[in-house]
């Protein structure tokens, strides 16, 4: 029984270590001296960067 619990605990720790890390990010955009912030929640960093890049139009610069 103890061996089964040990194996199960190891499996759970392995899944947690390999799972993706989703966080909240803030996209900050600046255009002609004006700055806005956009919250991007519960996503991977690469997804947040892609979503933030969508707002960079017409000379605006945006970054996470």
Spans where pLDDT lies below 50 across 5 or more residues: none
Helix % is 40-55%
Instruction: List how many beta strands DSSP finds.
Output: 3
Mean pLDDT: 82
Which secondary-structure class do the elements indicate? alpha+beta
Overall, the morphology is elongated
* Succession of helices and strands: HEEHE
Characterise this structure.
This protein is α+β, with helices and mostly antiparallel strands and 64 residues long. The protein has a domain at 21-64. 42% of the residues lie in helices and 34% in strands. The chain has helices at 2-18, 45-54; strands spanning 23-31, 34-43, 61-63. A three-stranded antiparallel beta sheet has the order 2-1-3. Strand 1 (23-31) and strand 2 (34-43) form a beta hairpin. The longest helix is centred in the first third of the chain and has 17 residues, at 2-18. The termini are far apart.
Which helices and strands appear, and what pairs or packs with what?
Layout: H1 2-18, E1 23-31, E2 34-43, H2 45-54, E3 61-63
Antiparallel strand pairs: 1-2, 1-3
Q: Summary?
A:
The protein is an alpha+beta fold.
